[in-house]
Amino acid sequence: MNKSRLRTLVMPLIAVIALVLTACGTSPGDPRASAGSGGKEVLKISAIPDQDPQELQRTYGALSKYLSKRLDVEVSYSNVSDYTASVTTFARGDLHLVFFGGLTGVQARAKVPDAVPLAQRDIDEEFRSVFIANQATGLEPVKDVAGLKSLAGHSFTFGSDVSTSGRVMPQHFLNEAGVSTEQFKGEPGYSDSHDATAALVQAGTYQVGALSSAVWDERVEAGKIDKKKVREIFRTPPYHDYHWLARPGLDEVFGDGFTEKLKGALLDLDGSDGEERKILELFTAGSFVETEPGNYREIEAVARSLGLLN
Description:
Blueprint: H1 3-24, E1 42-47, H2 53-71, E2 74-77, H3 83-92, E3 97-100, H4 102-111, E4 116-121, E5 129-134, E6 156-158, H5 164-176, E7 189-190, H6 194-203, E8 208-212, H7 213-221, E9 230-235, E10 243-246, H8 250-254, H9 258-267, H10 274-282, E11 288-289, H11 297-305
Parallel strand pairs: 1-2, 1-3, 6-7, 6-8
Antiparallel strand pairs: 3-10, 4-10, 4-11, 5-8, 5-9
């Protein structure tokens, strides 16, 4: 076969293939660009990386299996590198559902105004941060926010710089006590996760720190905290925190009513069987409950005052 004849046969075939690929393709930021086995769409979920990645994989791996069975869709959990990445990846459309902290949820809704808060844990209705201190400091527990003045002059670490319970609200309460970050010994640290904060203060790398009350309580109960080396100094007043945020348009991708079905699957987690009890235990929760954007106005105001929200 001569080259001219070969070109005549091949070129139309290439054109057809290109046309098919164009018709089936989607942009990288489109949630529909996530077909799994059998060509079905994959529900992509994630969370802020507030703990060790292996612990997060256990938690969200278990939840993914539950959601997959309840919703009859393939569910894939993806770890993200940091808090900011969770917001940008969600805003770009590469994630459908993310378990955000209070601040990151507010930041995500600022970028995706029609995003839908679906649910929060029961403990997130009245969440708290915990201030802890290395025992060598001699610091004693305090009874109120004003008592946080005793932390001045000590080295201090937050969690992630955009963590609600590990930075935003602790700094808010420090400000209420009249303690600025300039009054700490050296620049404040940012450990990137709650369990890391506990470990750093326990080791004496930093004298004082602040972290999620839920993570602190879980580590105490699990025997991972040496109370001869580190102690709780103060538990803050309550505020709303973590919540599930879903992208708009999921019904167009997964079918009519899917967003409500997804919400229902989360709210139905009540520990009625072993699988559900394990999931709730991993989330340190008794259940998931409904939430709404107005629950995060306080965090939004604090974030703006700290320059963390444009």
